[in-house]
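Our platform keeps sequence and structure together, in a single record for each protein. Nothing more is needed to write down the fold, since each code stands for a local backbone conformation. An entry from our holdings is shown next, in its original layout:
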Amino acid sequence: MGEEESRIASASADRHLLQKIAKILNETRTSYATHNRKLKELATVRSKLSSPDSDESSSVRRFASVFFKTLTPLFVAAQRRTAAAERVVRFVAEFACLRGNNSDGDSDCGEFLGEFLKFLLAGSVAANRNARFRACQIISEIILRLPDEVEVADELWDDVIDGMMLRVRDKVPVIRTFAVRSLSRFVNDPDNSDILDLLLEVLPLEQNPEVRKTIVLSLPPSNATTQAIIDCTLDVNESVRKVAYSVLANKVPLQSLSIKLRTTILQRGLADRAVNVSKECLKLMKNQWLSNCCQGDPIEFLKYLDVETYESVAESALEVFLSEGLIMPSDDKSIQQCIMSADGEARDESTCSTPSIQLMEPEIALYWRIICRKLHKCAQAKGSDAATAMGAEAAVYAAEASDTNDLLERILPATVSDYVALVKAHIDSGPNHHFSSRQLLLLGTMLDFSDAMLHKTASSFVQELLHRPFEQELDEDGNSIVIGDGINLGGDKDWAEAVSKLAKKVHAAPGEFEEIILVVIEELARPCRERTADFLQWMHMLSLTSLLLENGKSLHSLQGKAIEPEEILHALLLPGAKHTHLDVQRIAIKCLGLFGLLEKKPSEELVRQLRIAFCRSPPPISIMASKALVDLGMWHSPTEVDKAMGQDLLSQFEDESIDFVPVDLSNAEEDLNLKMLDLLYAGLESDDWRAYTESSEDESVKATVGEGFAKLLLLGEKYPNLPASFYPFILGKLIALYFSEESKEQLRFKQCLSVFFEHYASLSEKHKGYVSKAFVPLIRSLWPGIDGISKNSSYAVSNQRKRAVQASRFLLQMMQTPLYKSPDSPEDSVQPPLDRTEEGLAIRIAVEMVRFNAKKTAAEKAYVAALCKILVLLNLKPSEQNVIKLMKKLLTQVAESVCSEKDLLKEVKLVLEHLKSLDACPSEELSQDEANSIFETLGVSYNLDITAPATVPQTPAPCSTRVPARSRRRVRMEEASSDEDDEEVASPPPSAMPSAPNTLMTRSHRASKAAALAKIMASKVKMSYADEDIEEEEEGSSDVTAEDSDESEEYRE
């Protein structure tokens, strides 16, 4: 009786304790303000259980047991994350982290914490998702709130870490989020390096943005994590990108980043499409990099970016600083401080002594160019506002424009002579100051050269710049090597552009710019005409010609000058294209292309020379010639370029059934007898992807021609004379190149094609018609073993099939992409023609499937299966009833051809059922003339017999794996009738051949006849399969390889 009373008393005490704890927890649900008071109450309840006479460990376990029972509804109930529940979770975590006032209290708290963590770890592996969620949530709150001085057993921490690392891969995103939060406190521990490895592993694979954001916030600054954080600046989610910039600002010092990473961060952040992300990047630049690391000095900031290599990024950063008002020019700093007089004092307009120049660093030169350009634009804008305004408002704008102009004048050199001296000093200082020299050249566009004396000084300086030859150096053999690209003036495109801008500013009168350059060209061309010039002189003269032609508007503006346009073509450009030096040929070919753009009609000599250079020159020259031919074709149209040859040219595009014969470009007679598009296509068919230019590995003849054809397809409406067969054929070729294995290294080419394909099908219904027409020929050409026996390995065949399936899905996506709608287009659009719809594509695919008879090779079976999967994905609409009826007829024949393929037959039946639901009048039949009319509209040649009976075969039933037991009597009957069976197999009567024996006779007097009929059918099926197997074995390939089976299962899913 004593034990029973003790047990009842203990249960009553536990029930009373549970009620106390539940009351405290319920009161914490209302507000966070009650938590401090309730923490003391709950701690008092726990301390009262411990008495001097009782065991401390048992009392803590008793309290923990009751406490866990009280919390059980929080773990079991599938409730939302309400504010009340979140308050309880926070209170529980705070209580677990609560410390006592003495050593005994700390001991009780530590023991309770250990028991609580064990309880939570058990909940973290529960099957119930809410239990796992609450367990991980409370563990994360405890870990983040737990003071550092609290001692917890190492074994327990290891269990917690292992449990949370397991939850990082949980299927519920919120559980993964709290698991990452829990591990964030241990990620800096060198003993737990596996945590950091796990976070870096799951970050690029994580699909939920909140989890990715938590991982980024948890990563510590290190060489291993910096790249991962920077990669998140390209995340698709705006909040993740914002967090990445916040982490970079707070955790990653500027000095620990390489120059490449710094510029990457700024380039992505300043150009981000989200305003919040760009503001976070600005905060990074302003508060951390500019203020903390550079003490607000923009020049020091630019030194961290390598402005010579990343000029555009540095320019964008300075423009943002100026727009935000973070840097402002002052009177105590200006460019004039770099121009000193002989006595060491700053020069002014009255000083006549020779200036002493202090050379600028690249960062200073770029800084002053951006500052002066900003002031110049601001002064012009204020002046325009003053001109359009009236009264006091105009006076205010005029005063602001005057103040800005005064500040600009104080910054710029005092005189044009000082400016010329400053630029010359930097140019003469060698290549190390080339960048600064170019920045100072661009400053000249803000000076005033209207005075005659100033104009003369500046004109003389421009003449010196134009006469400045290419810089060169000698190799080991003593040969001269040009420094730079060898095409543009000064060996640098940016330098040539700066010189042209300054020359246009100085010679702003109409025709003066062309005249001054032609005078220099005529002077430099004299030794070239006399055949006394070396290749450097040729290149210098041609670079000036290229500069003139790039900035010229027409050949008419060049007439009547120092040298006529015809003389430039025949005396300079054509001889330069035939020069022995390859660099001279390349720049001459570029000039020929520019010259042809300025002509009203391309001349025969020019086009012929470009064709010869494209066919028979080395890759760098051939690439330049292909660019010139593409530009000429885009500007004048391919037809006009062909007319320039003055003879009848052949073209394979004019044939509707395009079957290209390979063109040998090395044949002197064959290449010049082809039209321009055929000639370019021969370059597209070349197998040499490695023919790169020396300046860029992203350029090749194939890529250049491919980009040109993409432009022609995109702007095809401007060239009505092109043959209709050109568009689908070239489109299919570009798609084949896009998915080819050889084009993987051509990143720029693939990027160009991806942008082209994204917009092509959405621009016009006609483009969708080309996509539909290109579908079947393209997929047939990509599928191995269709037009011949494939001699590749099974692995190669499997990869080829996968690429073909990818191309088919890609084409389907292009067909289903909605058209762009212009604001002026009516809401109720006209029904598009059949050949531009998905119904037309469905008929083309169905006809292609019907062309294969019942006996198909392994490659043909896989090909038909792939087409059937595309056919199922098409969205067929009841646009025309004749099309629906024709599709039913074709798919019925398709079903007959794949009757032995259970999966394919099921898919075809689904399409047929959908077509039956769309057929408004099933009783009406389609006439032969209507079917032929549809085929003629689609350009499909197929003889369909409408009168032929159409029956859909039944789906073959799966064979049973259970072998039925046969009685001895049945066996004896079959043995007795074996002779009769053999005779029936030899000559079966027509009446004894049932069409589909799908029932079994159960009576004994029918057993003999049923067995005979079953044997007849089995023997005939075996014979047909044997013939098919023999045919496939003769072709040297099995039905489906292991890789092909995996592939078909993958796409079926």
